[in-house]
Amino acid sequence: EIHIKEPAEKEVNPRLLPGELLLCEANMVYKYIQEDGSNRGTYGKLVCTNFKIAFLDDDSASDDNEPQFKNKIIGENDITLQCVDQIYGVYDEKKKILTGQLRKYPEKLIIYCKDLRVFHFCLRYTKEEEVKRIVSGIIHHSQTPKLLKRLFLFSYASAAPNNTEGRNQTVMFDTLEDWRDELERTKGNVKYKAVTINEGYRVSEKLPLYFVVPICVSEESILKYEGRGIPIWCWSCHNGAALLKMSAFPKEQDDSTSQTQKAFLDGIYKTISKAPYELLKTDDLSSSLPSLQDIQTAYTRFKQLFLIDNSTDFWATDVKWFSLLESTNWLEIIRRVLKKAIEVAECLERQHTNVLLIEESATDLCCVISTLVQVMMDSYSRTKSGFQSLIQKEWVIGGHGFLDRCNHLHKSDKEEAPVFLLLLNCVWQLVQQYPPAFEFTETYLTVLSDSLYVPIFSTFFFNSQHQKDTNTSGESLKTQSGPFRFLTVWDWSVQFDPKAQAFLNNPLYAEKPKPDKSQRKTTRFKHQRQLSLPLTATKSTTKRGFFREETDHLIKNILGKRISKFINSSDEPPNSFREFYDSWHSKPVDYHGLLLPRIDGPEIKVWAQRYLRWIPEAQLHGGGTIATAAKILDLMEEVQSLQVKMDEEHGQAISGDIRSVPLLRNSARLSSLFPFALLQRQSIKPALPTSTWKDLEDEDDLVKRDDEFVDLTSDMP
């Protein structure tokens, strides 16, 4: 049965951006509301442009019911072409992946997105000609390989009026001055120098125009192997120890070449191991961390858990949730990366040793580890502008291949790997463990991950500074000639109005106080156990064990036997690491000092807001962290109003206001995945609908699965 909402009388046209062209469209397309088994939905028009796929119904035209957290560029029913992950057609109730030329056109179209949205369109009532045009158009424009200059980025840059690289307090690291300022800020300028030798890219096209090396490294050395084998400075610790990175020499070489290169490296190591430099520890990340292929495989499995077609699928996977989650290995990769960052922090902080990260190109895992170490050790990197400057420095200017790793041009699946997403997942672990230490929110990180697929910003659409510079010169429609002027993603006003931007700032951020020991109290947060794995392979300690002290002894004994085989891992951290980790965690947290993530057992969680935000069954109404935040903000506002009254009575100037987040007044109706799942308009189903269980399996089947079921959901406070 189809609940038909009458097609709109009036014509609905898409809102096009400058440079955006309508390529094909189909009328009388029926979009299903995903969350229940009934075929409820709405009629509308499906269009494909050179920027996005969009579904337009009569609601699209009205401004009523507008969410307060609204993206100005991408609407609720818009999918940028770069955000399309896979397209399926449904033929006689069977799903089939769609690629290339089609002989037969499907009756239903399912689009899976990289931001984990799933769209279902029924084409049964659409004219055959329009079906052919829209389906082949969507497949062609979103899946076939394209040239860099064919990206919408260039169409937009040439047509949009007065685009400027808004700096927004974010240091772009595209000038020598920026590097010198950073050296001065970190007090690294005594032992390190910013060099101009790569101006005109005469050393290497992979290196940025300007970078920093130890003062003792000569220009001849840098030129000799196009920058390979040269330690490049990332950051200096308060005690003088520095974090460095180096692109390694290719492994397959003939003997004489590798001997020469070894002698060259020995010379470099000797030079930077003498005074005034600290001792040097090298770490080859290609052997100590998972490969890019492993990361890609794990993420591909992991995201499948969240690309849910319907309610029945959700409850079917829910029964096996923990085993499915563990089998992806994604949380284990996050744990290993965080553990590596803690090891590096220990060398810098406690052993006063320089750390040199080595990787083939020094633009993938080097970026992840160096960024994490700085977020953990430098409180400036935990402010919004500091974090953005850090991403510019280590990733954008540092030469991470966003174009290849995100496969924006659909050239080669072999190069694809979610390295930047891995970083954001790791930073999220820190943000949710220590909320007051960060000026930005998890919503900021979620929006940043979505911006990877918005091709109006140049930030995530080039492989290197050289590639951007060589493609910036071009014909602009408005000025007839002259370079393209691209937008940077850090100008958040392009995507959000001021009200929505408030969601990106943390109102509970503990700004750097004047020294006062009474402020150093720590907060302990409870687990959200359904989003973390209870069976992570890591060794527990007596001091901060797997179970909390208040856990019931009976459960401890029963579960302890069951999981003991999992927690004795060959990947056991060395004693010095364990000692450093435990001693830090036994002290109160200084939100402006060193921060170490908790990585034992279920401390590593799933980033619920990013991965579950489009799944209604996974939402908790009137609950979750947002409900707590709402109560705290109420209290803060009350304290503030009392402060204002006191200031007025004493005739003092009124103190600064609290950065309030709009729409938190009605927290009882908010979803735990706010602000993406807003006040629900649809009817809310109970958390465990009995009818669904009956549909899923009969009682005998459940009895057979009893062991597995108990194992997966055993209660742990």
UniProtKB/TrEMBL annotation:
Taxon lineage: Eukaryota, Metazoa, Chordata, Craniata, Vertebrata
Chief localization: cytoplasm
Start and end residues of each Myotubularin phosphatase domain: 173-611
Family listed: Belongs to the protein-tyrosine phosphatase family. Non-receptor class myotubularin subfamily.
GO cellular component, one term: sarcomere
Localisation: Cytoplasm, Myofibril, Sarcomere; Sarcoplasmic reticulum
Species of provenance: Cepphus grylle
A Pfam family of this chain: Myotub-related
Keyword entries, A-Z: Cytoplasm, Sarcoplasmic reticulum
Coiled coil stretches, renumbered: none
Protein's name according to its UniProt entry: Myotubularin-related protein 12
Gene behind this protein: Mtmr12
GO annotation, biological process: phosphatidylinositol dephosphorylation
